[in-house]
Amino acid sequence: MAFHLFKKDNGPRPIFAALGTDMHCHLIPAVDDGSKCTEESITCLQTLQAVGYKRVYITPHFCVPRFPNDEEDIQRRYAQLLRDAAEAGIEIEIAGIAGEYRLDRGFPDRLKNPHFLKINDRYILVELSLHEQMAGCDEMIFDLQTQGYEVILAHPERYPYLNIDGTRIEQLLNQSVYLQANVLSLGGFYGEEAKRRALTMIDRGWISFLGSDTHNTLYCQALRDLSRSRKIERLLEKHPFLNHTL
Q1: Which pLDDT score is estimated for 78?
Q2: Is the model's pTM score more than 0.70?
Q3: Taking each helix axis from N to C terminus, what angle separates 217-226 and 38-50, rounded to the nearest 10 degrees?
Q4: Which CATH number fits the domain that encloses residue 223?
Q5: DSSP secondary structure string, 25-86?
Q6: Measured between alpha carbons, how far is 223 from 53 in angstroms, rounded to an integer?
């Protein structure tokens, strides 16, 4: 007869308590490539709590022409999600609604009549194309800054044209742009190259924020798997990320 003295625990661990706040996820149902329904959003919120997050900002895409979302409509949908989450007994604090704004051909029009949804009423989260950088991005970032916003660039490790051994990232940092890496990059969710780039950027002190970038239950399973990594837990405890300030 075999005796099992120790039972292996395969459940999620709250390692992201070291960050406290998740400032990047896509949990407004059916507005972008994130959650498709309320039930999926609730499941994702439960997972974020299970892996240690205390607060979450929700950041739907604003991108022309793929996701031409409107801020007022997003705010109405956010209010409904708050009601649904309360009814479901969700305990994690849903701290606010922001946006992930693509620096694209439609962005200059947004700048003319800005109603940006901000993280902590302070930061604008922006993204670039995953394939090539649009001309004029620096000017768009500068225009945001002159209007009083602070800019966070989402997941720079996923832009292969941002050479980590070149000057482009240093230019962004010198322009006072904050960089936010995806936690799932650290586990290879987006491939080994994105993982290597993310770890290198963190080691060099370039990354100010980490975001889950949770879209759906597939991401949730990856988060639960990553939460069992002692190596990632030590990394989160070692580096002074700014999530706790949000």
Answers
A1: 98
A2: yes
A3: 10
A4: 3.20.20.140
A5: B--STTSSSS--SHHHHHHHHHHHHHTT--EEEE--EEBTTTB---HHHHHHHHHHHHHHHH
A6: 11
